[in-house]
Amino acid sequence: MSAPYGGPMSTIPPLLLERLVESLRDGVLVVDSEHRILHANAPARTLLQLPEEPVGLRMEESVADYRVSLLVDGCLSSGTAAERELSDPLDVRHILAQAVPVVDPVTSTAVEVLVILRDETRVRRLETVRRDFVANVSHELRTPVAAIQLLVETLLGGALDERAVAHEFVSRIGLEVAHMGQMVAELIELSTIESGRLSLRMEPTPVTELVAAAERLRPLADERRLQLRYEVDPTTPHVFGDGTRLGQVVRNLVHNAIKFTQPGGSITVSARRAEDDGDMVELTVTDTGCGIAADDLRRVFERFYKADRSRRREGEGSGLGLAIARHTVEAHGGRIAVESTPGRGASFVVLLPAFRGAGTMTTGRRRG
Ligand SMILES: Nc1ncnc2c1ncn2[C@@H]1O[C@H](COP(=O)(O)OP(=O)(O)O)[C@@H](O)[C@H]1O
Ligand SMILES: [Mg+2]
């Protein structure tokens, strides 16, 4: 840094000071009273989109955001520290800028301004996610609670004496409670996964075992007159992963397929070695259901996201299933994606690492 600061800083050797400023994550910009740039470290150059060599340039000709100049002006004229937020018009980027005057001890006027820039984008995004999460949980719990409350009031108001009505109401309370129970279980699962406390029993797992996890849903599929079929390439290698957790993922996908497919349709669970990456196994759940609109495709893996909120019936999901599925798959080093043609069905593709140990020799052989 070129300017002499006086005070305790001057005892730090200039080279060390320079290294220190350069290694900071926050942007540091020093300008003189004429708005000429005396120093800008790398984060400052990035955050303010400065040219490579900004020293000597005036802020007005090098800093795109005029608000930085205003901040510096305020600081120079008042001689006191000031701060201001530099959010972009789309509210995507949040930068907190603090201006600190460097005061000449003799004249007591601010001769330079030190601007510290902190990128708060990530913190802000996390805050939003947390707020939305709380709002979503409250909403999802309030709906069944309100329904239960109403049913109980009606029962106590006299419906209890009419056997048939009472029976109907109590079974509806049962459904709402089951829905809440499912949601609480999913929330606990999600928080275990997100806190990194999820322990996976990683072992070679035959894909047939994962595909078979869907079998438990056959009664539900039958009831909705849906065909449930399997297509497993016999040369598919074992997956390296936690069979129980991955079985749950398959079951979740099949459960969704059942929910979103009209009677008479079909659901296919297939497995094979991934075509473009031989180290991965590809598991696919395809249905002939209502499909997912293009706008929703990107979002279905978000927590609580449900494409068609108007269709919520009692006992229906909380929108957490796919978020859990994605976390589980990614914790295995895999990926999950979805393709869909609205009106013609959806296809969820899960890529999981193949087991590459000795077991592969007996279960799979590389094609091509
Ligand atoms: N097979 C599918 N066909 C059509 N839409 C689907 C399918 N699977 C998931 N979706 C959409 O994605 C949303 C999120 O799914 P999920 O996280 O499992 O939540 P939930 O099943 O509790 O609604 C669903 O509400 C639905 O809108
Ligand atoms: Mg679901």
Oligomer: single chain
> Beta-sheet strand percentage?
15-25%
> Nearest-angstrom radius of gyration?
30 Å
* Count of DSSP strands: 12
Structure description:
With 368 residues, the chain is of the alpha+beta class. The protein folds into three domains: 8-119, PAS domain (Beta-Lactamase), CATH 3.30.450; 123-197, Orthogonal Bundle (Helix Hairpins); 200-368, Histidine kinase-like ATPase, C-terminal domain (Heat Shock Protein 90, 2-Layer Sandwich). The protein is built from twelve helices and twelve strands. The chain has a five-stranded antiparallel sheet, sandwiched between helices. Strands 7-9-10-12-11 form a five-stranded mixed sheet. The chain has a two-stranded antiparallel sheet with strand order 6-8. Strand 1 and strand 2 form a beta hairpin. Helix 5 (121-156) runs antiparallel to helix 6, helix 6 packs parallel to helix 11 and helix 9 (243-259) packs antiparallel against helix 11 (321-331). The longest helix has 36 residues, at 121-156. It is elongated and about 90 Å long. The chain starts with 13 loop residues before the first helix and ends in a 5-residue tail after the last helix. Residues 359-368 have low confidence and may be disordered.
